[in-house]
């Protein structure tokens, strides 16, 4: 795209304009996707509870998310008198911005990525760990006990499961030999027989199961939504928020859910590659394969939310520290030992 703009302007201006266009090509469809997956989420819950779900606003209720957004936009923004106003208002902006920044390194097809950096996976880990600041600042700035308690829960929960996710990703990086997400996807081609994807590898399949569950905990989705346990925390760290500040948290949460679905697809299920390494399947554009996999994982997220009861907080922390952390450490040893044996004969 930079070369295209260079026909009319110097390289620096062409690069800046191409980067802005690339950001808009990702951010705008992502916002539309967030609106539509909220609709899909509610439809899935309704179907599993034998209800209709949204079906009034627009054909088949498709415009319900936009109506909700307009309603929130027209509401008054209320800032509690005892709150730290600056931090109170900047906290949802941090959460929303961080949720979008991580998409910069997600490859939608071979080479179709905004920033094809060699440390893409480290970038995602760094950006996702910043999300906790938006939550904890919101809890503290509200100057209310329930949001503050929820923010403490959220920070402990996110940090706990990020540790396990880090060790899980070490296994993927060792097998692919790179932190670059494009390289990781290419390493999954014909990985096990005719299949594309690390998920078909017996050593990495348990890692995917743990990553899927950890990604639900990282995004505070059911059954790990302890930060919004209504019976004990009213509405969690969002209790004092209204209008667009509340909507930014909502959008950021769903953008993070989509990001985790995309990471499941890219790291374990072959990204834009078809599931089977068969020539006719490559006629289907790679981005369609990626979107189909993202939708599949989002359906799993919705399915779990509609059917699995909420964990207690002690159960949540026990699963992270006493089950996932030792298991992920054990598989780091197993995977590294297997690779040393097969690649280097040690």
Written description of the protein model:
Helix 8 (205-218) runs antiparallel to helix 10. The protein folds into two domains: 1-67, no CATH class; 75-344, no CATH class. Helices cover 66% and strands 0% of the residues. The model has no long low-confidence stretch (mean pLDDT 85). The longest helix has 38 residues, at 11-48. With 346 residues, it is an all-alpha fold.
Any key phrases for this structure?
single chain; 346 residues; mainly alpha; 2 domains; 0% strand
Topology:
Blueprint: H1 2-5, H2 11-48, H3 64-74, H4 85-101, H5 120-141, H6 145-176, H7 181-187, H8 205-218, H9 230-233, H10 243-268, H11 286-307, H12 313-344
Count of domain modules: 2
Biggest beta sheet summary: none
What class, by secondary structure content?
Answer: mainly alpha
What value does the average pLDDT take? Answer: 85
């Amino acid at each position: 795209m930079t070369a295209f703009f260079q026909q009319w302007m110097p390289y620096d201006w062409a690069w800046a304009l191409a980067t802005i266009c690339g950001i808009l090509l990702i951010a705008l469809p992502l916002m539309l996707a967030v609106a539509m997956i909220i609709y899909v989420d509610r439809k899935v819950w309704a179907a599993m509870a034998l209800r209709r779900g949204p079906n009034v606003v627009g054909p088949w209720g498709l415009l319900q998310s936009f109506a909700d957004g307009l309603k929130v936009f027209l509401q008054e923004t209320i800032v509690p008198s005892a709150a730290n106003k600056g931090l109170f208002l900047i906290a949802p902006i941090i959460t929303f911005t961080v949720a979008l920044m991580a998409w910069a390194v997600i490859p939608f097809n071979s080479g179709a990525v905004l920033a094809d950096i060699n440390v893409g996976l480290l970038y995602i880990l760094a950006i996702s760990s910043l999300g906790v600041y938006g939550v904890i600042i919101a809890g503290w700035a509200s100057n209310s006990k329930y949001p503050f308690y929820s923010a403490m829960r959220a920070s402990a929960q996110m940090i706990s499961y990020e540790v396990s996710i880090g060790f899980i990703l070490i296994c993927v990086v060792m097998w692919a030999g790179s932190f670059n997400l494009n390289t990781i996807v290419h390493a999954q081609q014909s990985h096990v027989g005719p299949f594309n994807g690390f998920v078909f590898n017996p050593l990495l399949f348990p890692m995917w199961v743990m990553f899927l569950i950890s990604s639900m905990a990282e995004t505070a989705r059911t059954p790990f939504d302890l930060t919004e346990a209504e019976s004990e925390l009213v509405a969690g760290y969002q209790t004092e928020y209204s209008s667009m500040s509340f909507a930014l948290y909502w959008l950021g949460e769903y953008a993070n859910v989509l990001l985790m679905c995309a990471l499941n697809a890219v790291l374990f299920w072959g990204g834009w590659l078809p599931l089977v390494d068969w020539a006719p399947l490559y006629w289907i554009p790679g981005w369609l394969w990626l979107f189909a996999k993202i939708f599949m994982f989002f359906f799993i997220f919705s399915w779990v939310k509609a059917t699995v009861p909420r964990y207690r907080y002690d159960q949540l922390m026990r699963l992270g520290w006493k089950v996932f952390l030792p298991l992920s450490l054990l598989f780091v040893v197993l995977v590294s030992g297997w690779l040393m044996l097969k690649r280097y004969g040690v």
